Amino acid sequence: MKTHYLCCIIMAALLCGCAQNEPEHTYYRPLTSPGGKFALLPPAVQNTVRAQAGMTELVSVSRMGTEESPVYMFTFSNPDIYPTLFVAPDGSVLRPDMTVAVGASVDTIAASTGSGIGNVKMDDLPLPVVVKIRDQEPTAEVDSLTRLTSGLAIYYSVVFKDPAHHPRLLIRDNGSLIQ
């Protein structure tokens, strides 16, 4: 009986000796990486960066311009080979003075008119648009998605299979609901 108590006391002492307090880590800035920011960009912007820079190391991603006309700026690890890249939301490559150097591909936007229409899949939508659709109509089944552009502004028209109960949505690429 005494041996049993002695074993329990030794076991408890060993277990207490193994317990340690984890050090506290205080983060003052959000833990973001260029890759994390890149994943949240519109698909047309991502495709343009991949086409222009391939798999080179991305150092930073910045959003410039206004809410209506954003411009994405990318810097790479070797600026001599890959200079700073400016991309419009439609995938057009811009010069540093913000004039178009290489227009977006025809399947992305009708470059000659400055506005375009295109059908897209749910997987191609920017994350803020998907979140807004799920917030507005969580139980509705999507019938069609159309990408609309006007200048540098990108919109997504969402039509549901039951329009009587789920009206059409028009959502900006940043997730703001237009109507």
Task: Walk me through this protein's architecture.
With 179 residues, the protein is of the alpha+beta class. It has helices spanning 2-18, 34-39, 43-53, 127-136; strands at 58-65, 70-76, 85-87, 93-94, 100-102, 115-119, 142-150, 153-160, 169-172. The protein has 2 domains: 32-104, Nuclear Transport Factor 2, Chain: A; 109-179, Nuclear Transport Factor 2, Chain: A. It has a 5-stranded antiparallel sheet with strand order 1-2-3-4-5. A 4-stranded antiparallel sheet has the order 6-7-8-9, covered by helices on one side. Strand 3 and strand 4 (93-94) form a beta hairpin. The longest helix is centred in the first third of the chain and has 17 residues, at 2-18. The chain is flat, with a radius of gyration of 25 Å.
Keywords:
single chain; alpha+beta; Nuclear Transport Factor 2, Chain: A; 2 domains; five-stranded antiparallel β-sheet; four-stranded antiparallel β-sheet; 4 helices; 9 strands; about 25% strand
What is this entry, summarized?
Helix content is 25%, strand content 27%. The chain is of the alpha+beta class and 179 residues long. The chain has two domains: 32-104, Nuclear Transport Factor 2, Chain: A (Roll); 109-179, Nuclear Transport Factor 2, Chain: A, CATH 3.10.450.
